[in-house]
């Protein structure tokens, strides 16, 4: 059996094939992905955002970068250099001689195929006299000539050549490795894999999956465990103690000689920031500098150019670090829940996690916690707020400003010119307006609306994102109707008539049903109002709406049947027929409800499967932020909490793909004790102040059904077992008798 032989490319020729392929695999995709696109596309995008985001810091920095950046030129130069290297290697490969050619003895002897034996001997004699070593010829060439002569004159050699392509028969299988021998030499063989593995290992032991230093994650975990109830001042100190701001751990962080002069000056302007804190790492210079830069950013203070660059670096890193703090808090909460809520384990309180979310909003908008959310708008200053919070207007939030009439809004903002007013309205109109629809159910259960102790509750939240400008349009439409009626009475009358007809069209289909419902509620006053209150109380009329609708439909059906029975007092036989028909319709309705629940369950499963398979882009909407140095996308946190006990019920879900609408499922185990529970579904923005939403979630937990130990279909009475044993014995005796008869 032939052996195997591995050999390296000592000459280095085959290595050029490998190197050419390697460079081509890098240069071709890099050209497709990294070649600078048309700058006009970026300019058009920035032009479309100019009206709203023209004053944003990130917008101005992006505009300057697109106009003065040399990065596209460097990218082009690097890619052109790569193509030059690739073409040079390809030219080198095309000039290489083929070393591995098919062996042909006729070509070695310079004979035509099919030459006679005499011609072969004659040619061999001539070539041997020319290339024999004793005659001064080349020994290697003479050996090839002798091997070709033997292959053509010896029967065995000729057969081996025709079968294996080699006069000597099957040889060792040779595997060529397209690497020079020096790169795998014993002295150098450990160098390439050591460099690759060392680089990967160095990054894996330093950074987490979210590119946060593992030492920073450990720092956050330590302080969140040590201080479960963390206020905003303490949270800021923990954030700025991250090792991302330490030059010894991160090369992007810098400590300048001028910091000894500028940082103390900012400390005197800021006031009390716990400078004398001796607890490490809060007392370290890098932590103190980062804390000063964050607090000066929240106070919207002006800093020098050098500190401004460092401040932008700190601001860019802060949202990701705060998200890591939220993740750490959720992990500690899960650990505490798994231990049964023992007091020995200090889980962070709900206020700590929510303060992390608030601090993210504050850093993105450059506002302190106590400041008005109206300061997020352009041209608004502290002295302008007195016009808004006056007794006449009482505008304290963005929603108050939106709901204000246009005439009152213009009167209130009269300190702004017409141009500035239009800019403020354009910015306010771009802010998000989120509506939440909440559905509470227990999936994979026969009765999905019955919540039992310990069951897994699924809260499906449908988020719909619109702009504040849509609210303006609705308000303008609502205000336009009275104006038209005052201007033209006849047109107003026709409009009123049209609205009445439109209302009757919508309500006409359910007119009889409502009248029958009223009759039913007069007779049965207790159950229907209770159900209505529960349906209206559950999450602002959105929770368990489907169950409430089913109850109303059933009540209307029963009411119509009772009215018909009172109006038509027929014979008993007719009543029996009606009762039979009624029972049949109830069975059909029950089957239809089961089918609807099954279809809803299948649809939810399909939605979950599609959500797992789809990878949505995290590019949603650019955030309007006057002082944040980087273009940020609009993201949200969605979670369920028990605000009375200050605990998380479900872990916060980071909604990063809400462009128009998004459906999120929040799961949590129902309490182990029966009773009524009051939770809250909370939606928080990670970019804007004053746009958070809190909706109540009422949970009525019932006692779980008792599980049967034995399945009823397997319970066999004793008499039946005896009968079966007797039948088995009779069958065995009959088979024995048949065997004897056959014998």
TrEMBL record:
GO terms for biological process: nervous system development; post-translational protein targeting to endoplasmic reticulum membrane; SRP-dependent cotranslational protein targeting to membrane. It is found in: Endoplasmic reticulum membrane. The chain crosses the membrane at residues 15-35, 70-91. InterPro entries: C2_domain_sf, DnaJ_domain, Ig_E-set, J_dom_sf, Sec63-dom. The keyword Chaperone applies. Its main location: endoplasmic reticulum. One of its GO terms (molecular function) is RNA binding. It is a multi-pass membrane protein. Residues 526-535 have a biased composition (Low complexity). Residues 474-603, 708-743 are annotated as: Disordered. Residues 104-165 form the J domain. One of its GO terms (cellular component) is Sec62/Sec63 complex. Residues 556-584 have a biased composition (Basic and acidic residues). Residues 536-545 have a biased composition (Polar residues). Mediates cotranslational and post-translational transport of certain precursor polypeptides across endoplasmic reticulum (ER). Proposed to play an auxiliary role in recognition of precursors with short and apolar signal peptides. May cooperate with SEC62 and HSPA5/BiP to facilitate targeting of small presecretory proteins into the SEC61 channel-forming translocon complex, triggering channel opening for polypeptide translocation to the ER lumen. Required for efficient PKD1/Polycystin-1 biogenesis and trafficking to the plasma membrane of the primary cilia. The ER translocon complex consists of channel-forming core components SEC61A1, SEC61B and SEC61G and different auxiliary components such as SEC62 and SEC63. This is Translocation protein SEC63 homolog. It comes from Fundulus heteroclitus. The lineage of its organism: Eukaryota, Metazoa, Chordata, Craniata, Vertebrata.
């Amino acid at each position: 059996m032939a052996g195997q032989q591995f050999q390296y490319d000592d000459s280095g020729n085959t290595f050029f094939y490998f190197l050419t392929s390697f460079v081509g695999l890098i240069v071709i995709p890099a050209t497709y992905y990294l070649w600078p696109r048309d700058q006009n596309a970026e300019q058009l995008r920035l032009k479309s955002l100019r009206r709203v985001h023209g004053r944003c810091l990130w917008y101005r920095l992006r505009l300057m970068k697109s106009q003065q950046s040399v990065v596209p030129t460097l990218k082009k130069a690097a890619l052109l250099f790569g193509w030059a290297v690739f073409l040079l290697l390809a030219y080198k490969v095309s000039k290489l001689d083929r070393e591995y050619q098919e062996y042909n003895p006729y070509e070695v002897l310079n004979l035509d195929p099919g030459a006679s034996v005499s011609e072969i001997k004659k040619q061999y004699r001539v070539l041997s006299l020319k290339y024999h070593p004793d005659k001064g010829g080349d020994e290697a060439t003479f050996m090839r000539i002798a091997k070709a002569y033997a292959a053509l004159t010896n029967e065995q050699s000729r057969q081996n050549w025709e079968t294996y392509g080699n006069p000597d028969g099957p040889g060792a299988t040779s595997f060529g490795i397209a690497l020079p021998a020096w790169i795998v030499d014993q002295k150098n063989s450990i160098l390439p894999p050591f460099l690759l593995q060392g680089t990967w290992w160095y990054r894996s032991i330093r950074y987490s999956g979210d590119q946060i230093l593992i030492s920073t994650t450990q720092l956050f975990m330590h302080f969140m465990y040590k201080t479960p109830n963390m206020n905003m001042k303490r949270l800021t100190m923990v954030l700025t103690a991250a090792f991302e701001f330490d030059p010894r751990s991160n090369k992007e962080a810098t400590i300048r000689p001028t910091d000894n002069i500028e940082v103390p000056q900012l400390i005197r302007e800021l006031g009390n920031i716990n400078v004398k804190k001796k607890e490490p790492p809060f007392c370290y210079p890098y932590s103190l500098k980062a804390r000063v830069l964050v607090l000066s950013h929240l106070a919207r203070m002006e800093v020098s150019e050098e500190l401004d660059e460092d401040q932008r670096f700190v601001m860019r890193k802060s949202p990701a670090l705060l998200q890591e703090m939220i993740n750490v808090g959720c992990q500690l909460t899960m650990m505490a829940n798994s231990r049964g809520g023992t007091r020995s384990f200090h889980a962070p309180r709900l206020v700590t996690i929510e303060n992390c979310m608030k601090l993210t909003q504050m850093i993105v908008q450059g506002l302190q916690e106590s400041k008005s959310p109206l300061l997020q708008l352009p041209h608004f200053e502290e002295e302008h707020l007195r016009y808004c919070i006056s007794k006449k207007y009482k505008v304290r939030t963005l929603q108050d400003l939106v709901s204000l009439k246009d005439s009152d809004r213009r009167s209130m903002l009269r300190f702004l010119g017409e141009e500035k007013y239009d800019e403020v309205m354009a910015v306010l109109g771009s802010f998000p307006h989120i509506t939440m629809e909440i559905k509470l159910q227990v999936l994979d259960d026969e009765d999905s609306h019955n919540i039992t102790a310990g069951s897994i509750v699924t809260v499906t939240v449908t988020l719909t994102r619109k702009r504040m400008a849509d609210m303006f349009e609705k308000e303008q439409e609502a205000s336009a109707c009275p104006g038209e009626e005052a201007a033209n009475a006849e047109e107003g009358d026709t409009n009123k008539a049209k609205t009445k007809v439109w209302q009757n069209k919508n309500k006409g289909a359910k007119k009889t049903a409502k009248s029958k419902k009223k009759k039913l509620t007069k007779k049965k006053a207790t159950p229907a109002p209770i159900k209505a209150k529960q349906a209206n109380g559950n999450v602002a009329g959105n929770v368990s709406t489907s169950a409430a609708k089913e109850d109303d439909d059933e009540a209307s059906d029963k009411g119509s049947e009772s009215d018909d029975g009172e109006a038509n007092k027929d014979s008993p036989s007719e009543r029996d027929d009606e009762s039979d028909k009624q029972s049949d319709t109830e069975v059909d309705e029950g089957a239809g409800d089961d089918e609807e629940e099954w279809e809803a369950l299948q649809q939810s499963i399909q939605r979950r499967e599609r959500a797992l398979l789809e990878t949505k882009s995290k590019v949603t909407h650019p955030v309007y932020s006057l002082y944040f140095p980087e273009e940020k996308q609009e993201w949200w946190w969605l979670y369920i909490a028990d605000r009375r006990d200050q605990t998380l019920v479900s872990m916060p879900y980071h909604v990063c793909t809400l462009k128009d609408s998004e459906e999120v499922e929040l799961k949590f185990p129902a309490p182990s004790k029966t009773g009524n529970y009051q939770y809250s579904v909370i939606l928080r923005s990670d970019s804007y102040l004053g746009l958070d939403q809190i909706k109540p979630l009422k949970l009525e937990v019932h006692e779980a059904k008792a599980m049967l130990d034995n399945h009823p279909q397997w319970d066999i009475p004793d008499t039946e077992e005896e009968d079966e044993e007797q039948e088995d014995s009779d069958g065995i005796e009959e088979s024995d008798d048949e065997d004897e008869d056959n014998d």
